[in-house]
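Inputs:
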Amino acid sequence: MNATSTSELSPAALEAFLARACGATTARVVREERLTGGAIQDNRLLVVELVGGPYAGRQEFVLRTDAASGVAASWDRAHEFRILRVVHAAGVRVPEPVAFCDDPAVRGRPFLLMRRVIGETRGARLVRDPQVRERGEDLVRAVAGEMAKLHAIRPPQRELAFLPLPEPDPARARIALYRRWLDAMEAAEPVVEHALRRLELAPPARQEVVLVHGDLRVGNLMVAQGQLVAILDWEFAGWSDPLEDLGWFCARYWRFGVDEREAGGLASRRVLVAAYEEASGRRVDARALAFWEVMANLRWAVIALMQARRHSSGAERSLELALTAAVLPRLERDILSGLEAWEDM
Amino acid sequence: MIGVDWIVDLLATAREELRERIQPQLAPEDRYVAAMIGRAMQIAGRELALGAAMRERERQALAGLFDDPAGELEALRRQLVRAIREGAFDARRGELEAALAMRVAARLAITDPDYR
């Protein structure tokens, strides 16, 4: 972990904000360090001494700031904070949201503050961790339980009024969105286009509209001793069909090479579906799930193209972003085989 | 001596040095960067060795869909994408998927030749 010095901006402004947000008389930042995070956000650990108020004592918070260049698909911190509040209130295992700040005098950019949770999030490491491998089925059941709580949240929700409702239905709204993204990049991607067309011709007859995470995969789970601690990274949340989260979780790319365990490299698809059906009271149609799995590969393909553009356009030069372009052929192969499996069902 | 074979071998040798001698000495977060550099070199090596042939293979596959044997790859891709969206290939699914599979195999040969 990279230890860096306290903010280049005034620590006094941050401390004043922390005191106010936490209802404390005073707040003192004892330590700040950069945490390894996603490609989009900057996450920092703040160890804070608070005097008075509900958070009195030593607290460990995570300060999450918008990155310099964003992805079209993702919500900023202000919106992520509201999503986090709603899902936390619904009892979904997430880091407790503490405060949001949009005063540029404090950190230069808006940020959200949440309680720190500790565990491993690196997907490639998790799927190979002996403890996780042994308890993979329990872990997937726990994820299914959290999905069920999340998917019980339905529109309208006053705090989530900024989330657009999918029109005319989640599947067709996604197809239209991905086409808009492709057109905005002037991308000519025949495999992606072919799959969008096939899916457009036969969307699942039955769709629902619930709150979905939008990036629910093993790399966004926080796990300690083989147990689920929290689900992270809510910046892609939205109203959609619940099977979108299940399809994304099962997509081959997010199995990190442990292909035989179709549910996130952790357990079989059967375990995920059975646990989800039990916890949610929904019946999962296998063909609809296969549809959403193709959609997951499509979504990732289009987002990977956008990530690669962030680099090649010069907006944010980065080897990691540049190499994202190299995942396309694998996703195309998965799209073609996923389409075949779906159409044969 | 200085030709494509030499460059391909040069990249492979440099990558081996990176992996065998440099990477183990690095801190974990730098090891990840070294792995990405190694991957970039590996892709570059395959591109030099196979890139032109693979693009020609994709071009032929797409050209076959339009009876346009001399069509240029980027123009064919754009034409195909438009036609697919308009539904012009709805009734030619098998033929289209065979051509797309050729494209994917040609591209995987550069990025992930072992991917099944």
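Chain B has one domain: 4-111. Flag for discussion at group meeting.
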